């Protein structure tokens, strides 16, 4: 390549990198402006110590209306399984906009919270509740008005937490009835006040969790209770009636009856109707949200009942009717898309540096393309195996099996179409330069992400797809999944590069074979759900649900592989970079 051609390529790549950086900044600024309510909400990260050295990571949303003179209610939010505090922005931001101080907490072993010792099973919101209610640090919080909400497994945790603190209150009241107490067998006002202080939870909202709810589960709960469950919940088959319809649900009826005296008991549930009174913490309400389980916290019609519940039970400091959390997700999505796209011009820019240019080779010439029958046979086989194996084995094993199959198919296609694979062989100097190139690109990627998070307290995400700032725990976890990811991605890169020069676009189709098969699974699962009320695959229903996160990545990956193959003339850089990106997403 001539000097002028290199200079032109360097200039063009630099411009593209700058455009991506500008889009990242726009996304970060926009996300921050929405997240802070235009500057009226301060957001800061906290690390709250728990038992046995465990530490809970949390984000504190404090509206500027909450002061020591005008104390505001506090609501603690926790996500479900495999989710982090950032995924609950619809709750945390909307509650903060309405004047509530909001503390959203990562569960232990998720996000930035540490793991727990084997003998401990306290939820991470417990030290958060103690931190708020037993210290004067948050002197702008009204500790007599504390609420908690969790989605999915988080819903189970908040119910259990409410029962733990309710049991402390019950035990203190029972003790107050003993003859040796200050009021003898009668409970004095002071004794009742002391007992109630042991249970700071005034309201609890259980979202996306219905399993095993019965009278015993609410025996010690002395809090107002709200329940929100998706009508089309994928896990509804596990309930007593095997669906998500709460109108005839024994679990939903148990929630309502737990707050009513014997003389006012009911035998059916009126969805959306409030029972009991918030003043004595007997208020109960059940909402049947018209949505799916995994998007319940992202469905405006399911978020609104949550806001109304806390408004009714804790008192609204600042009434607001609209929701603005979703533009933040879009701005964060702009950051994610721009940052990922930036890897391509950044790679091309690095390749203009003399030392890194040694990682580049001219594209290998090809002689002929695979026959039409071989090509489509390979595509159909991959799609079929991807679909069948996904619902019959763990995801890690699925990656290995389909990676090996992809390598075999790529070898057959390459031997059928030409002598020698395009861009497979590399000398040791090329290998070293290629690995170094990937490391530098990922370092730049994460340095920018760290700066964005440090200045704006936002990361790269689009709803359930996310890349968070790198931590030691996240890095070590990523290392454990890189090998299986790399095997699968290398096969994908080879498939994308396998067809001849005259039909390179067909390689994209080969790279998309697995996503096609997985899409069939989603179609079957949700067609069955909406037509019968229950899912087709029950044992693996949660793994099928993760396809909403996995599929977008698998669809984009072949495009990256093709671009990086054309940039370097080799099939290796794409899998290395994409393995690093996907491992950190996982």
Please explain how this structure is put together:
The chain has 586 residues and is an alpha/beta fold. 52% of the residues lie in helices and 11% in strands. The protein contains 18 helices and ten strands. It has an eight-stranded mixed beta sheet with strand order 1-2-4-3-5-6-7-8, sandwiched between helices. Strands 9-10 form a two-stranded antiparallel sheet. It is elongated, with a radius of gyration of 28 Å. The chain starts with a helix and ends with a helix. The mean pLDDT is 90.
Oligomeric description of these chains: single chain
Report mean pLDDT, rounded to a whole number.
90
The major β-sheet equals: 8 strands, mixed
Estimated helix fraction: 40-55%
Number of strands: 10
Distance between the termini: 39 Å
Low-confidence stretches: none
What is the number of helical segments per DSSP (H or I, 4+ residues)? Answer: 18
Secondary-structure-based class equals alpha/beta
Characterize this entry briefly.
It is built from 18 helices and 10 strands. The chain is α/β, with parallel strands linked by helices and 586 residues long.
Task: State the main characteristics.
586 residues; alpha/beta; 8-stranded mixed sheet; two-stranded antiparallel ribbon; 18 helices; 10 strands; elongated
SSE topology:
Elements: H1 3-35, E1 41-49, E2 55-63, E3 72-78, H2 89-97, E4 101-105, H3 125-133, E5 141-151, H4 153-176, H5 189-197, E6 201-207, E7 224-230, H6 250-257, E8 284-289, H7 300-314, H8 325-351, H9 354-357, H10 372-390, H11 395-417, H12 428-456, E9 460-462, E10 465-467, H13 472-497, H14 505-511, H15 513-532, H16 541-545, H17 547-568, H18 573-585
